[in-house]
Amino acid sequence: MRQQLSSVANSPAAFRELCAAHGLAVTHQRQIIYQALMAMHDHPSPEAVYEQVRAEIPSISLATVYKTIHTFLEAGLIQEVSIHHGTLRIEANREPHYHLICSECRSVSDLDETLVSPIRVQGKLPRGFEVRKFALDVIGLCAACRAKSKKQ
Amino acid sequence: MRQQLSSVANSPAAFRELCAAHGLAVTHQRQIIYQALMAMHDHPSPEAVYEQVRAEIPSISLATVYKTIHTFLEAGLIQEVSIHHGTLRIEANREPHYHLICSECRSVSDLDETLVSPIRVQGKLPRGFEVRKFALDVIGLCAACRAKSKKQ
DNA sequence: CTAGATGCAAACAGTTTGCGTCACT
DNA sequence: AGTGACGCAAACTGTTTGCATCTAG
What we know:
Two copies of one chain form a homodimer. The first copy, chain A, contains five helices and five strands; from the N terminus they run ααααβββββα.
């Protein structure tokens, strides 16, 4: 399931190799977008990637950036920062608790804090950062989605 | 900072009390929305709340539901499921890691897994749920935002 | 040569805003 | 009586889609 690649350097050759490993066509746009992503060490929005890439390819369209990001996500070349992007979701449960998420159907259920080993930060955080709380998502497959994916 | 209330039951009287404690006007719409939220034990979107509330107040507007949800969020009567609702954010870092989030400026930085005590689920999950990974957000205030809030 | 990638514009979903009217305090 | 909550419609933002054209394999 996981591909081991001989190079992870951010070079055109490495990118061709990555694409080959995932069965993706190598296009100029994809190459530049990939380069931009590797160079941006924050957690950019598609819009931010678009701005960055336009420096190289002024004629690129935002739609292409979106499509390419989805392609890269599916191939596992990049990740989303959170499974919860999109619509606002609210809850009335004011007790501290975590969430159990099915990555397939996106269902969310509550998970009592006491069911998880206590979380402690042991290392050095950026100076001055004041921790207020932990938000933990336990991500996996719910029984229903597991059954569905087995069938195929 | 935190209000202790003599009743948490979902009654009109309790709601009046809650509103009084938070300085909110008590309106019919707010009352019905609050009731609906308490009755919905999943993690509804504003749209879903709207649908639910329309059963009671057919003439209510979606804008009111949004405004009320924000009011309740600010007052702390309800919570958002994730701090990451909204725009898609992506990252090239494919190593397993967590995130450090400033709740004020919403900045995101990476946090190595090894800096956090190992996470283990100790209790019973819903039968058949297959855990794949943990997504942990360490939420707090970054140095800059802490300085800013102290000034005021 | 052909499947699929790109660019454009239009469509869409979720959310916010301005404003006139109405209701709580 | 006055502040602010409501309802409506229009505006806005982020994202997707249909389609004609172009390009990698």
